[in-house]
Amino acid sequence: MTYPGSGLGLLPDQYIDISDRLIKNEEDGTKSLTDPITGLGNLRRMKLKTDKLIEQRDEDPAPFSIGMFDIDRFRPINDLFGRKAGDEILSQVALRISAALPENAMLARISGDMFGMVLPTCFFEKDALKIGELLRDVFAAPFDLGERIVRVSATFGFCQYPFAGATFDELFDKCESALYQARKRGAASIQVYTHEMAQAVRQRTQIEQALRKAVAAQEIEAWFQPVVNLHTKEVLGFECLARWTDAELGEVSPAVFIPLAEQAGFIDALTKQLFAKAIACARHWPDTVFLSFNLSSVQLVDPTTALAVLLMLEKMEFDPRRIKIEITETAMMSDPQTAERIINDLRAVGIRVLLDDFGTGQSSLGRLRDFSFDKVKIDRSFIAALDEDEQAGHIVRAIVNMCDALGLGVIAEGIETAEQARKLVELGCSAGQGYYFGRPAPADATIALFEKAAGARDPKCCSAIAGCCGD
Question: Which CATH superfamily does the domain covering 33-193 fall into?
Fold first, then answer.
């Protein structure tokens, strides 16, 4: 006997059991598409919605948009008020934004404080900007946490189908790129993926591919800029600078390829190659001339960095006391504890550590207190302002006096005129570098300078090295 309507030849109890399981599976499927905190769809549901829309628009190729936003400075809310308060903010954001979006739009919680949107009737860049501006205004009202209120903002990124991509993954990547660019401009910014951004992405990909080949072929060159005694113009040392000229791309700025190497994950290989080339060159200089070398933010979060530096020096039989390592405050801020250990390990063997770009960080005075540095490099922005801004002179003098009190040496960077050099001497700064004293030069040219000056009365004197110094 079959149970009526089943068509499966099952007994009543068996039919009821299967029905319960089907209902449970449907509920589980709904849960797998739903964010438990906000009740919104999750990333998977956003993908399904987008895929379905792409399928529909394949026949009718009308554009649509997807967007994403994250809440600015959301983590401090969790840290200060607890996770429950953070979840309450997320729930209120979900309600507000859902009410503000067009009727046929979909809002999803992607992860953490990041939300995604599918906007079927948002056809053009200008439409996305309007929606972004509307949603930004939604965040203007404070959020109620019971006994307290909290104000937060959000940063937005958008892209359009089919311009930005023909699949959800492609669209999502472009939307992330737009959000990344918006974050770079600051909190509560809005960015739509544009033709200019597309061109920048293509160019970045081209540069990254060429850079990988250049690193593999050891084509990144070490160039050197002199650091001089401002009183005597004696060459004290050279800072190593990375230079790269590609056969197709031409000369690529280190401001472009160094961050790219960091992001792509091969800055360590590049740094080791450059350091080896720099030491090979410095072995031809007088023993009293130092080599200054920059470490990136990636090296300052790697506990093995100090050991790698020491092993390289030992392998190439180079005196650690002739090495100065330059680091920036920004690079230290990712992992201050690891950075401090690296600095201490380097200084323990006689390597001197310089704080670069001093004056541009958010808490430089605190860094001087918390870390053990040997010298400070005054940022070029203060030096450039010496010619026209009296306040810049007061700042430089204050930095020099402070460093004297702390027992720190000072180097001014970016000196381009004789007048700047003269003023720096008056302000108490005794060492500097910049185009006035010499532009960066390749290794062979640097070695040739000392060879040419070998017969001079003082072979270290910068004035004896033709073309190295200003008047």
Answer: Reverse transcriptase/Diguanylate cyclase domain (3.30.70.270)
Buried b (16+ CB within 10 A) or exposed e, 166-202: eebeebbbbbebbbebbeeeeebbbbbbbeebeeeee
pLDDT beyond 70 at 464 = no
DSSP states along 1-59? -PPTTT-S---HHHHHHHHHHHHHHHHHHHHHTB-TTT--B-HHHHHHHHHHHHHHHHH
Residue 77's pLDDT band (cuts 50, 70, 90): confident
Q: The tokens of 230 are what?
A: 């401002």
Q: Does residue 413 carry a catalytic annotation? A: yes
| Contacts with 396 (C-beta within 8 Å, 6 or more apart), sequence order | 378, 382, 383, 386, 412, 424, 427, 429
Q: Where are the alpha helices (DSSP H) in 217-349?
A: 254-264, 267-282, 305-315, 329-332, 336-348
Q: Which two tokens stand for residue 213?
A: 């080949």
The catalytic residue among 413, 419, 426, 451 is 413
What is the C-alpha separation between 380 and 367, in angstroms, rounded?
Answer: 19
Residue 345: name the closest of 375, 372, 371, 306 by CA.
306
Cα(55)–Cα(63) distance, rounded to whole angstroms?
12
Distance between CA atoms of 422 and 415, rounded to whole angstroms?
Answer: 10
Q: What is the DSSP string of 34-45?
A: B-TTT--B-HHH
Range 219-464 classified under CATH 3.30.1030.10: no
Cα–Cα separations (whole angstroms), residue 347 to 38, 81, 211, 365, 386 = 52, 41, 32, 20, 33
pLDDT in tens, 154-179: 999 999 999 999 999 999 999 999 99
Contacts of 16 (CB under 8 A, 6+ apart): none
Residue 113 tokens, joined:
């404080």
How big is the CA angle at 327 (ends 323 and 329), to the nearest 5 degrees?
155
Distance CA 397, CA 376 (A): 13
Q: What is the pLDDT of residues 213-251, one digit of tens each?
A: 999 999 999 999 999 999 999 999 999 999 999 999 999
| For residues 280-284, average pLDDT | 96
Could you state, in order of their start, the residue ranges of all structural domains in the chain?
A: 33-193, 219-464
DSSP, residue by residue, 363-399: SHHHHHHHS--SEEEE-HHHHHGGGT-HHHHHHHHHH
